[in-house]
Design brief:
Strand order of the largest sheet of chain A: 1-2
Largest sheet of chain B: 6 strands, mixed
Structural class of chain A: mainly alpha
Radius of gyration of chain A: 19 Å
Shape of chain A: globular
Number of helices of chain A: 16
Distance between the termini of chain B: 139 Å
Strand order of the largest sheet of chain B: 1-14-13-17-15-16
Largest interface: A-B, 33 and 40 residues
CATH superfamily of one domain in chain B: NADH-ubiquinone oxidoreductase 51kDa subunit
Number of strands of chain B: 17
CATH topology of one domain in chain B: Rossmann fold
Structural class of chain B: alpha/beta
Oligomer: heterodimer
Order of helices and strands of chain A: HHHHHHHHEHEHHHHHHH
Strand content of chain A: under 5%
CATH class of one domain in chain B: Alpha Beta
Number of strands of chain A: 2
Chain lengths: 314, 507
C-alpha cells in the first residue's frame, strides 16, 4: 500500500467528521440542544483564538483554518450537559483556548489537553450546572429556553447513570438493587466507538492509546469487581457509561498533549484507563476522564524520555 | 525475496514512470567543466595549463593525498580556463574548475596498458591503485573515493552490489543494468579477486523485472546471487540495505566495512570494470532527468562536466518557470537555474514546474508521530525537531541527531509540511561548529594553562635558585667565619703561648 500524505487540517476535519455518530446519538436521546452548545462553543473559540493570535502577532487566517480550535470547542461542547446555561460553555471554551492553548504558544505547544482543561475548570467552578443532564428528550425550543435561561427548567434535568450509581452506592445500596442499565449512555458510547474505528481505519489515530486505555479501564474495573461485586460495578458498566469511548478515541488521542513514542502511548493510554476507574469509583466527581487525562498529560515528558525506541545500530 | 524487511520507509509509486528506461548515449558536449574539489581531502592541483591540448582520459589535476582521486579530461580538446565556477550546491559556493573545449574528435589516451582481461595476474595493491588513478568515487551520490572503501573492506565476507535506486523517480541504476549487465557481473568478479569476499549479492528492487531478468540471464557465476527486495524508499541507503539483505545491523557510527560487507553501487562496479579491464578512467556517468516539467523522463550516459543545459536540451520540457534540483524528490538540493555541470555524483536532475511544486507553508508540529513511523533508523523526528527548533543541540544529540541519514521520509509524511530534514541539517552544522569551537577553546585553554604552568615553574625555579644561592652564600660565610675563628684561635693560641714563653723567660 502506498504511503499516504496527510495534512494537519485534514486530520482535524476527519476527527470532527468521526464525531458525527456519537453526537447523533446524543441528539437522538437528549434533543438537538447539543447543536446549540456546539455552535456557541465554536463561535467563542474562533473569536478567542483570533483575538489571541492578533495579540501574539501571528497570522490569524491559517491558524484558525487548521480546525484545531473548533475541534477543541466541539469536544468540550459535547462533554458538558446539553442543557447547561450558555455562559458555562462560553467560559469553558475561553479557558480552554486561552489558558489551555494560546498561552503556551498555540497549537502544538500546549502540555495539557485544552478541552479537558476547560472541562476541569467548569466542573470545579460550576459543579451544579455541570452535572445536570437532561432527564428525557427535550425539543429544540425547550433547549433554547433552558440554555439562555428564558424559562424555568425544573423537571427537565436528571443525573447521569454514572452519577446516579455513585450516589446510590454512597447511600449504601447494594449493586444488585441499583438499575445499571442506560440505553442512551450505551448508544452514545457505541456511536463514539464506531467513529473511533473509522479514525483507526483512516490511520488518523494510532491504535496504541485507545486499545491500552480500554485495556487499563477493563483490567482495573475487573480487579475491583473481582474483589467485591456487591460494591463495584462491572467492566461492562464502565465501558458503556460516561465518556469512556469519547475519551479513548477522541480525547486521549489528542497528539499534542499525548505521549509520542509507540511504547509511551501504550503506557499513557493504560494509565488513563486505570485512572478513569479509580477516580470514578473513589473520587468525588461522577466522571473522571478530564482528571485522568490531565494527570497523565503531566507525565508525558517523562514517559517520552524513557520510552525512546531503540535507534538503528545502537 | 529478502527476509529482513526494515521498519519505516515510504512505499511510493515512481511518480515519473518512463516507458523506456534505456540509457541514451548523447553526442559529445562542446565544453566540459570539471571541478577539482572532491568529496574528501584537499582540492586537486591542475597539471595542465590554459591552451594545452588534452586527450580524453588524460589526468588534468591530481593530488598527493592517497585518499583522493585524480581528475580526468572527459573529452579531448583544449583547456580554455582554470577558474572558479558555481557548484551544484544550495550555498551557490564557487570552486576551482578546469574548462575544456572539445575538438570533436574524442581522441583517447592509450588504454592498452594495464591489467586488461588478465587482471587476476595483478596484485590487489595494483588494482587498488588502478581504481584510485582512474578517479572512481561512489556513484550512488555520496562520492566517497572507492579505492579507500575497497581497501577498508579488505577481508570482507560479502560484496553487496547496490542496484536499488536512490529515490523514487530515479531510474539511472536500472538503465545502467539494462545497458551493462555483463559488466556488472564481471566487475563483481574483479572485486572477488581483490577483496577475498566469498559471495556477491546484487540487491535490486522488485519493481524492475526487466533488469532482474537480464542480470539473471547473464549471471553465470554461482558465487553471485540476485536478491529482490521490496520497493520501498530508503532501501537503497547502505545501512538499511545491509540490514534488509543480510540482516546485519551496522552499529551506530560504523560502516559496512566494519561488519565485513563491501557495499558498492552498480555504477561504481561498472566503473571498476571499465578501469581495471578496459583501462578507461571514469569520464562519464548515467543521469536521470525527471520531474513534473519533464514530458518524458529519460536516462542519459553523459560525459562528466557537461552542463545541465546541454543535458536538458535532449528532453522535452513543459513551458513555464522551472525549478531545478540535483538528485530526486526526497533528498534533492534545489538549485538556482541550470548553470551547473554534471559531476561524478550527479545521479539525477529534477525539473519541476515552479508553481506546481510551491511548498505549502509549514504549520505547527502537532506531535502526531507519523514521522517516527516512517523513520528507517527509528529516531523520534518530532523530538529532534523540537530541540533543533530551540537550538538545543545537546538535547538533539541525546536524541541521536547524528544517526539521522537525512532521507527525508519524515518531511514527506509530515501533515504540517515542516521541512524537518532542513532543521536536522542545520542542527548538525551547529553541532559540528560547536565541536570545532570546543576543540579550539580546549586547545587555547591547554595552551594558556601550560603557559601559566611554565611561568609558575620559572618563578619557582628562580626562587629555588635564589634560595640555593643564598644558602650557599650563607654556608660560605659560615665556613669563612669558622676559618676565621680557627685562624683567630690559632693566632690567639700563638700569641698566648708567646706571652707564656715570655713570662717563663722572664722568670
Amino acid at each position: 500500500m502506498e504511503t499516504k500524505r496527510l495534512d494537519t487540517n485534514q486530520i482535524m476535519r476527519q476527527v470532527i467528521y468521526a464525531l458525527v455518530l456519537g453526537v447523533g446519538a446524543q441528539i437522538y436521546f437528549f434533543g438537538s440542544s447539543v447543536i446549540v452548545q456546539i455552535i456557541l462553543a465554536s463561535i467563542t473559540a474562533i473569536i478567542a483564538e483570533a483575538v489571541f493570535l492578533q495579540i501574539r502577532g501571528v497570522k490569524i487566517k491559517p491558524a484558525i483554518m487548521d480546525g484545531s480550535a473548533i475541534l477543541t470547542a466541539i469536544l468540550l461542547a459535547i462533554s458538558i450537559p446539553s442543557i447547561a446555561p450558555w455562559w458555562v460553555v462560553v467560559l469553558g471554551v475561553l479557558f480552554a483556548i486561552i489558558f489551555g492553548k494560546q498561552i503556551f504558544g498555540g497549537l502544538g505547544n500546549n502540555p495539557f489537553n485544552p478541552a479537558m482543561l476547560g472541562y476541569a475548570f467548569l466542573l470545579i467552578s460550576y459543579p451544579v450546572q455541570m452535572t445536570q443532564w437532561p432527564g428525557e428528550f427535550i425539543s429544540f425550543s425547550q433547549g433554547i429556553d433552558v440554555i439562555f435561561g428564558l424559562n424555568n427548567v425544573d423537571g427537565l434535568t436528571g443525573a447521569t447513570r454514572l452519577d446516579d450509581v455513585k450516589t446510590q452506592l454512597m447511600l449504601g445500596t447494594q449493586i444488585r438493587d441499583i438499575n445499571l442499565e442506560s440505553v442512551s449512555q450505551l448508544w452514545i458510547n457505541v456511536g463514539f466507538l464506531l467513529g473511533g474505528i473509522y479514525l483507526l481505519l483512516r490511520r488518523i489515530i494510532f491504535w496504541q492509546i485507545p486499545f491500552s486505555l480500554l485495556l487499563g479501564l477493563i483490567l482495573m474495573s475487573a480487579a475491583l469487581f473481582f474483589i467485591d461485586p456487591s460494591q463495584f460495578t462491572s467492566p461492562y458498566f464502565h465501558l458503556a457509561n460516561g465518556a469512556t469511548m469519547l475519551a479513548a478515541f477522541f480525547i486521549a488521542t489528542d497528539p499534542v498533549s499525548a505521549s509520542t513514542t509507540p511504547r509511551g502511548r501504550v503506557i499513557y493510554g493504560f494509565f488513563i484507563g486505570t485512572l478513569i476507574v479509580i477516580i470514578r469509583v473513589f473520587g468525588g466527581y461522577p466522571d473522571a476522564v478530564a482528571f485522568a487525562v490531565l494527570l497523565m498529560n503531566i507525565t508525558v515528558p517523562l514517559i517520552d524520555f524513557y520510552t525512546q525506541p531503540k535507534v538503528f545500530g545502537k | 525475496m529478502s527476509e529482513f524487511a526494515f521498519k519505516g520507509g515510504l512505499k511510493l509509486e515512481n511518480p515519473y514512470p518512463a516507458d523506456e528506461i534505456d540509457l541514451i548515449r548523447i553526442p559529445l558536449p562542446d565544453k566540459v567543466i570539471l571541478p577539482l574539489q572532491q568529496r574528501i581531502g584537499e582540492q586537486a592541483k591542475p597539471i595542465v595549463g590554459i591552451g594545452e591540448h588534452v586527450l580524453t582520459g588524460q589526468v588534468v589535476a591530481t593530488i598527493d593525498d592517497e585518499r583522493c582521486a585524480p581528475v580526468h579530461a572527459s573529452i579531448s580538446g583544449n583547456v580554455v580556463a582554470i577558474d572558479e565556477q558555481v557548484m551544484p550546491h544550495q550555498s551557490g559556493l564557487k570552486a576551482l574548475c578546469i574548462t575544456i573545449e572539445s575538438d570533436g574528435k574524442d581522441d583517447w589516451v592509450d588504454t592498452s596498458i594495464g591489467c586488461t582481461e588478465h587482471y587476476e595476474l595483478c596484485t590487489p595493491e595494483t588494482i587498488y591503485n588502478k581504481i584510485r588513478v582512474s578517479g572512481i568515487v561512489g556513484m550512488g551520490g555520496a562520492g566517497f573515493p572507492t579505492h579507500t572503501k575497497v581497501q577498508l573492506a579488505e577481508g570482507c565476507h560479502t560484496l553487496l552490489v547496490n542496484a536499488t535506486e536512490c529515490e523514487p523517480g530515479i531510474t539511472c541504476d536500472a538503465s545502467l543494468i539494462l545497458a551493462y549487465s555483463t559488466k556488472i557481473i564481471r566487475g563483481a568478479e574483479v572485486l572477488f579477486h581483490i577483496s577475498r569476499a566469498e559471495r556477491a549479492i546484487i540487491a535490486i528492487e522488485d519493481d524492475k523485472p526487466e533488469a532482474i531478468a537480464l542480470l539473471k540471464k547473464y549471471c553465470n557465476n554461482d558465487r553471485i546471487s540476485i536478491e529482490e527486495i521490496p520497493t520501498k524508499y530508503t532501501s537503497g541507503a547502505e545501512k538499511i540495505l545491509v540490514k534488509s539483505v543480510l540482516g546485519i545491523e551496522i552499529p551506530s557510527g560504523k560502516f559496512a566495512s566494519d561488519v565485513g560487507v563491501l557495499c558498492l553501487n552498480v555504477g561504481t562496479v561498472v566503473a571498476i570494470f571499465d578501469a581495471v579491464v578496459e583501462n578507461r578512467p571514469l569520464i562519464s556517468r548515467a543521469v536521470t532527468v525527471a520531474g513534473n516539467a519533464v514530458k518524458v523522463p529519460k536516462n542519459f550516459q553523459v560525459r562528466l562536466g557537461a552542463s545541465y543545459d546541454y543535458l536538458l536540451s535532449f528532453t522535452d520540457l513543459e513551458e513555464g518557470k522551472h525549478k531545478v534540483s540535483m538528485a530526486g524528490m526526497m533528498m534533492g538540493i534545489e538549485l538556482k537555474g541550470t548553470n551547473y555541470s554534471v559531476t561524478k555524483n550527479t545521479n539525477c536532475i529534477f525539473v519541476d514546474m515552479d508553481e506546481k511544486s510551491a511548498p505549502a507553508k509549514a504549520k505547527e508540529c502537532i506531535r502526531c508521530g507519523l514521522c517516527n513511523t516512517v523513520c528507517p533508523v527509528d529516531l523520534l523526528p518530532q523530538q529532534l525537531y523540537w530541540y533543533s527548533k530551540g537550538e538545543n543541540i545537546d538535547k538533539a544529540v541525546d536524541y541521536n541527531l547524528l544517526d539521522c541519514i537525512e532521507c527525508g521520509c519524515c518531511s514527506y509524511v509530515c501533515p504540517s509540511r515542516i521541512p524537518l530534514v532542513n532543521y536536522y541539517q542545520f542542527s548538525k552544522a551547529l553541532y559540528r561548529q560547536q565541536v570545532k569551537e570546543k576543540e579550539q577553546t580546549d586547545k587555547a585553554r591547554s595552551r594558556f594553562e601550560f603557559r601559566e604552568m611554565r611561568l609558575e615553574r620559572n618563578k619557582r625555579e628562580r626562587a629555588e635558585m635564589m634560595e640555593a644561592k643564598k644558602k650557599a652564600l650563607k654556608e660560605k660565610m659560615a665556613s669563612d667565619k669558622a676559618q676565621k675563628d680557627i685562624i683567630e684561635a690559632a693566632v690567639e693560641r700563638v700569641s698566648s703561648s708567646k706571652s707564656d714563653t715570655e713570662e717563663q723567660d722572664g722568670n
